[in-house]
Amino acid sequence: MSGVARGRGVAVTGIGLVTPAGIGVDENWRRVLSGVSAATTDPELKGERVDISCRVPGFDATAELGRRNAWKLDRFAQLAIVSARQAVADAGLDCGSWDGTRVGVVIGNSLGGVATLEKQLRTYFEGTPDDVSALMIPMGMVNMVAGYVAMDQKIHGPSLVTATACASGASAIGTAREWLLSGLCDVVLAGGTESAISPGTLNGLSRMGALSARTDDPAAASRPFAHDRDGFVAGEGAAILVLERCEDATARNARRYADIAGFSATSDAHHATAPHPQGAGLARALRDALSDAGVFPDEVEHVNAHGTSTPMNDLTEARALHSVLGDRAAVTSTKGVTGHTLAAAGAVEAAYTALALHHGALPPTANVNSLDPSIDVDIDVVTGQARQKRIQVAASTSLGFGGHNAALVLTAA
Predict the structure, then answer these.
(1) Residue 364, Cα to own-chain centre: how many angstroms?
(2) pTM check: above 0.85
């Protein structure tokens, strides 16, 4: 995708994570390496056809943001702001001292403040127009999350929300890389956020057949690539990465978790919700991202796959990965632990991929006792325990409704 500077990377110098695996980088990394699922029965979904989810444990918006800020924000924005604050601190930066005109923010999201909108619409139909909150629209609008992060971090450069469904977080990171390589920005906060665990949303997903019906055993419900998978568990969360040009990060002696070396996005133009049966669009995105990074397919050692635990996604993604990489790369889906965080997923998984490069460990895919024999290609799925392995090149792949595909290539710093 980058015609500006083929093969040039940008550095990941800070990571913020607020996910079902925990709050902060250390908690997240321990949990995904353990392979223990975060899915539980959700009291707020009692009586619904699917009553399990993966929520962020112990998240207290008032404690994190203060009552004055927390009450006027939908949860998807709260998660993003806290994640952004973590990432900036982790990068050793301070929004009070940077030139905000040279800083940008781009965040992926798909459903906005859907929980707020559901609540306010219920209020409208059950009450009177005067009962509707004056904050309904700014709390519900998708774009507002980038605006709120910009306000919180004193960012005066470009701000944008990417909306490519479950590829939104990866699309945001790819866009941020372009901003940096073009010289538009010197620092970009990039990632994704989603908090759409609401009765209306989950009933819609369930009616589509996307959610696991294994409600009697929540912790075992998300099982990517397993022979008995039946859908995903809905999750929420946010991941924000601080990205800088490699030379700028080196000049200020910043720690570099990994480098974003390549990116590409494609469209299936096939079906509203189903991926192309052979994964053709995803395969092309991965090939183009590798070319963008100047990396050969046989150099890729690890893939953090989209791996939703739905029958069709995992089959077609396996075909796409095999068509490009063969069976050489170790494949993980961390959704076995976190559930599917929707628009945040690509950013959450890019962060985990950067941590795998940084720490030399490949997370396992939770709940996989035996691989699906109907997957008609060989891929090396990491199961059981984490693999300790120093790697130099990894990829993260994302797919979204509407036929959106995105691929990121990361290299060791």
Answers:
(1) 17
(2) yes
DSSP 211: B
Write out the catalytic residue numbers. Answer: 166, 306, 340
Which of 208-212, 258-262, 273-277 is the least confident region? 273-277
CA 92 – CA 250 distance, rounded (Å): 13
Residue 47's φ and ψ, nearest 5 degrees, are 90, -10
Q: b/e for 88-123, b at 16 or more Cβ within 10 A? A: bebbebebeebeeeebbbbbbbbbbbbbbbbbbeee
Q: Higher model confidence: residue 274 or residue 51?
A: 51
Of 372 and 146, the one with more pLDDT: 146
* 140 closest CA partner among 126, 168, 119: 119
Got the DSSP string for 131-176?
GS-TTHHHHH-TTHHHHHHHHHHT--S-EEEE--GGGHHHHHHHHH
CB atoms near residue 410 (< 10 Å):
30
